[in-house]
Amino acid sequence: MSTPNGVMVGTPADERGRRRGTLWPTLRAIYIIWYRDVLRYWRDRTRLLTSLVQPLLFLIVFGTGLSSALSGAGGGFAGPAAAAAGLTYTQFIFPGIIGMSVLFSAIFGAMSIVWDREFGFLKEVLVAPIDRSAVAIGKSLGGATQAMVQGLILLILAPLIGVKLTLGSVVALVPLVFVLAFALSSMGVAIASRMRSMQGFQVVMNFLMMPMFFLSGALFPLSGLPAWMTVLTRLDPAAYGMDPLRRVVLGGAGLPSSALDRIGLTVFDTVLPIVVEAAILLAFGVVMLAIAVRNFRIRD
After folding, report:
1. For 113-124, how does the pLDDT look when each residue is reduced to its tens digit (9 = 90+)?
2. 275 lies in which domain range?
3. I need a labelling partner for 265 at 20 to 30 A (CA). Which of 155, 176, 212, 296 fits?
4. What kind and span of H or E run contains 122?
5. What DSSP string runs through 6-27?
6. Half-sphere exposure of 99 (CA within 13 A, CB side)
7. Is residue 235 a part of any domain in this protein?
8. Within 71-110, where are the H helices?
9. Strands, E, within the chain: which ranges?
10. Residue 231 maps to a domain
11. Considering its fold, how many domains does the chain have in total?
12. Do the beta carbons of residue 85 and residue 254 sit within 8 Å?
């Protein structure tokens, strides 16, 4: 359609048609990138098995050692309510170990971006006739899927340490683990999208991951901490994923909800519902994904 001045303009129907014409290729590209990462993960059985070693070391060696040391402390690590419920330190850190596995797997999953950049595969993808946002979304979802599987695999250890899981708690854990994995994977992709070397990415990730892990409440309750550490734990996005995992897992282990409130994450002395914590984590993941999309759209 043309204006009286002879300028061609598109109709609303034409604009909708163009959007539909670009939507399907973008969705297909997201699926292919996601499928490639998941397929590589599934075929690498050595990586799948060795990635379980660190969580097992924390759970069996670290957890058992401290559990023995604290056995005569009257449940001091989590208060009298934990002792009354017969909760051991190994059971207490079990949800945190699941979160640790998700944290490490999700962030290091973004390392494939730097790897693909160094070997030229990423350049081939970026010059393809697709929206560059597909790369960021596909990589984030691929890393989140890998990390979610990695974390859920550890649930098979629950009976061995005396943690009772019901079908309802397992079903509730799946979306919570995925939201945590998505948020952390998106953060890893946002950082990896601007890195040019594997060494630089590893340095940055190690600088971020260990503080995030130790301040997330995976190994100790988030209550009764010094003021400066309390502020840091509330700024740690991983803390908003660890706390819901602990509530769901330890709720099945017999720990009362009142005890979980006392050892969990509170903001301004207010106990956040699981839905609110998941929403905060999801919002963080969306922001990180938006940053990753912007970084990929910047021409190198």
Report:
1. 887 777 767 777
2. 24-297
3. 155
4. helix 121-126
5. S-B---HHHHHHHHHHHHHHHH
6. 32
7. yes
8. 80-84, 89-109
9. 266-267, 270-271
10. yes
11. 1
12. yes
Could you give the C-alpha distances from 147 to 14, 25, 103, 119, 179, in angstroms and in order? 41, 26, 7, 24, 10
Query: Are residues 96 and 66 in contact, defined by beta-carbon separation less than 8 angstroms?
Result: no
Distance of alpha carbon 99 from alpha carbon 249, whole angstroms: 12
Looking at residue 270, its amino acid is T
Encoded tokens for 226 = 């010094």
Tell me the per-residue pLDDT of 219-258, one tens digit each, with 9 for 90 and over. Answer: 888 877 888 898 999 999 999 999 899 888 887 656 667 6
66 domain residue, yes or no: yes
> Exposed, middle or buried by CB within 10 Å (0-12, 13-18, 19+), for 185?
buried
Q: What are residue 2's DSSP bridge partners? A: 8
Residue with tokens 């207010």: 270
- The pTM of the full predicted model, rounded to 2 decimals, is 0.84
Task: Output the six-digit token pair for 4.
Answer: 């009286």
The SS3 assignment for 255 reads coil
Is 169 domain-assigned? yes
CA triple 144-50-246, angle to 5 deg: 50
